[in-house]
Write the C-alpha cells for this entry.
Amino acid sequence: MTKFEQWWDSVEWSFSMRLIIKPLVKPFAKMAWYVATLEEREACAKACEEEKDIDGVSTAKAFAEIIRARGQE
C-alpha cells in the first residue's frame, strides 16, 4: 500500500461524501499527491546540489542523485 493510499484511507468522510464524492475526487487527489511529491523531491535535490563541497568531496551531488532516484521506484 502506498503512502497516498494510507493517507486516503485515513480521511474521515461522511456517509454521503463516501458514496458520492470520494470515488470522483480520488484520481485528482492522487495526481496532486504525486506531483507535489516530485516537486518536493526535486527541490530537495537542488538544495543538495547548491551546498558547498566539504574537503573537496562532492557528497551533496551524490545525495541529490539518491533523492531523484527515489522517484524512480
Helices lie at 3-10, 15-50, 59-70.
